[in-house]
Amino acid sequence: MTSTKSFPKPLTPKEELEYLKKFKSGETEFKTILIERNLRLVAHIVKKYTNYQEDAEDLISIGTIGLIKAIETYNIEKGTRLATYAARCIDNEILMTLRANKKNKSEVSLHDPIGIDKEGNEITLMDILGSELDDVIDEVELKIKIKKLYEKINNILTNREKEIIELRYGLTPSGYRTQRDIAKRLQISRSYVSRIEKRALKKLKKCLGSERD
Question: Where does the record locate the signal sequence feature (predicted)?
């Protein structure tokens, strides 16, 4: 786990209040400072979850999302220290993710079921890659090796496309996520997640189809 010593020192109460006021008044650059100077708190809270089968760096990333939410929703007038409020938000974000992951498989093969179609039949990611855009999908054969598809994901997708595909179809230890879950996690709209997902699938299908030619 990353040592708390590697994070910037926390703000003094005076600095914290000053930066919060500036951020709340619209000086958004102070949001970054508030996040960076509270990362030590995230790392400290993550230590409580070392018994869970989650990567520490992943937990810090998840905890940081909770920290960001805390900074954005913190009410100065209530008089509670930011650290006290943020600790609850960080805990909640981590616990919510752990509970969601517990309901899902820790890893999902491209051939494992990820949902059910209108007829009640189980569908897989490979089914999706072979069911949409018929003119392209006919070129995609289910016998394509999983390793090959993973390589394509790494080589032809942007970082954002790769992240969404991996989260949507359980290609990472964080498990399968809905578009709504991903939108919340990445702080973007669900419709934007859907557009990126469709664009990424088209890229994969086109690439795999052209190789067969």
Answer: none
